[in-house]
């Protein structure tokens, strides 16, 4: 049993990767400099502020950051923003949890079983080819315009990248590890813990990053179609009344949420996969 712990895919891959990239790791920093990824958005914000301040862009078409900030303070003061943002976060969080759980289970069933692969993979590939936007009318007919429809659309957006990346990781496990597990008579639980899980984690986190991004994209869609609450509803109402600064505020909020959630997943991935 000790032999298995020394030959898991995670640890051997870590050693091989370290040997092959020793020169690269000396030239590049181990982790990106704190705040490095925010440089691009800051430059865009600066260009936006300069172009609106100098009158290069009409305020009627694109209000400046000051107007958007004032809209933020106004909606925050009257409680509108807090209410809509809370509902959006609740929808997205629930959709991500359901999508991650369903995608992971389906990937494990399809990745470790030929029968499961035959039944599941084809259906997932068909869904992959159908955009969520095309499914919204059908789900409205089935579930109405309530929270269930919105959460399921978000969950489907998360499920696909989780499944695709985990399935690819599981089906590419080196057969030597499987044979080693059989040789030392690993139980099913030990086989999953020592071989399957370490091999699937890189694919899982890649899928999670893509899935979180897909969740925010799906949220934008469901909250601007037949919604009565949320940040997307705020954007729709602002568009109706010509309040461009509120439209921009909603877009900025979506962008900040997406950037922040991706950064959180990166941090967790770096800690969990420190052996890489």
TrEMBL record:
Region described as Disordered: spans on this chain: 1-23
Matching InterPro entries, A to Z? Answer: MetI-like, MetI-like_sf
GO cellular component assignments: plasma membrane
Q: Where is the composition biased (Polar residues)?
A: 13-23
Report if keyword Phosphoprotein is assigned: no
Which residues belong to any copy of the ABC transmembrane type-1 domain?
A: 85-265
Q: Does the keyword Membrane apply?
A: yes
Where it mainly occurs, coarsely classed, is membrane
Taxonomic superkingdom = Bacteria
Q: Which residues cross the membrane?
A: 38-57, 94-116, 128-145, 151-170, 214-235, 247-268
Identify the keywords attached in UniProt to this record, alphabetized.
Cell membrane, Membrane, Transmembrane, Transmembrane helix, Transport
Cross-referenced SUPFAM superfamilies: MetI-like (SSF161098)
Q: How does it sit in the membrane?
A: Multi-pass membrane protein
Q: Coiled-coil annotation: which residues? A: none
GO biological process: any one?
alkanesulfonate transmembrane transport
**Which compartment or compartments is the protein found in?**
Cell membrane
Biological role: Probably part of an ABC transporter complex. Probably responsible for the translocation of the substrate across the membrane.
Q: Which family does it belong to?
A: Belongs to the binding-protein-dependent transport system permease family.
Q: Report the protein name in the record.
A: Sulfonate transport system permease protein
Instruction: Please tell me the species this chain comes from.
Output: Neorhizobium alkalisoli
